[in-house]
Amino acid sequence: MAKQQPLQQPSTPWGTLEELLLACAVNRHGTDRWDSIAMEVSNRTSTLSSLTSQNCIDKFDDLKRRFGFPTELQNDTASLLVDELRKLRVDELRREVHQRDVSIV
After folding, report:
1. 78 vs 7, 41, 61, 99, CA distance in Å?
2. How far apart are CA 58 and CA 61, in angstroms?
3. pTM of this structure
4. Angle at 26 between CA 12 and CA 69, to 5 degrees
5. Most buried among 11, 29, 46, 66, using CB within 10 Å?
6. How many CA atoms does the CB half-sphere of 104 hold within 13 Å?
7. What does each C-alpha distance from 16 to 52, 63, 71, 102 come to in angstroms?
């Protein structure tokens, strides 16, 4: 019996920015072009340079679970994920700005 190879994970964990880039790419390309999605996300971030299409599929499924969306993709799922992740990213950036403002004083 052949031994299954473990899925290759990206060397760096996904941050909110990378998750947002993934959701935007899925929104733009749909779910039939995972190679294009992986290439786009890899090209737009330096932290996930060895990304595979399977990594993207797994992470997108994880995002749908985390945000309570059905596992089967519906037409607006990716755009709804973009909205949710955009809110999270804006909150992160606000906190960073606030921390820097406090440290300047």
Report:
1. 24, 15, 11, 31
2. 5
3. 0.82
4. 90
5. 29
6. 6
7. 18, 11, 20, 23
